Amino acid sequence: MDFLSHALVGALIGEVSPKRIKHRQLKGALAAMSPDIANFFAYPYLGVKVGNTIPYAHPEDFYANTWIIDHWTWIPWEITHSLLFWGLIFMPLLLWSKKPLLFGVAYLSHILLDMPSHSGIWSTVPLYPFEFRFEGWFDAWAWSVPEAIMWATIPFVLWRIAAYTRVPSIDVLAWPSEHEVA
Ligand SMILES: [Zn+2]
Fold it and tell me: Do residues 12 and 6 make contact, with C-beta atoms less than 8 angstroms apart?
């Protein structure tokens, strides 16, 4: 998905987390956006390579330069979008540091939402480093800003409904911390 939808889904997960987690919506949004930090390698690299004034690559640059997926700058993205990375590195670190499960669930939402929304060679490799591409149905990552805003209304509305209807919070999302959660 695009960064806006990820952030809003994360905020929704934060919303249904126990209120004792401080800034829970913001934490959910940041955790749900975090796998794309790995874009800080391929986007500037390709942007410089194609001679853009601002060192940043646009979707059309990616479509015109499919070799990028074989370049090392693409690998961090494959790693952070891997369920194995989430299960074997991210979650153990999270539990070890006693941070609430909210972070882990919001991060997982990113991987799961990216699977259908990346297609063709841009598909995610959910069991990376094992080479199995999950063929998505569309390319949300290449949406224009108006398209991204239009689709982001869905998680935004769901988030606001959850906030106004005061759905019961999912207590396990605060686990393993017992009391006030930083
Ligand atoms: Zn992503």
Answer: no
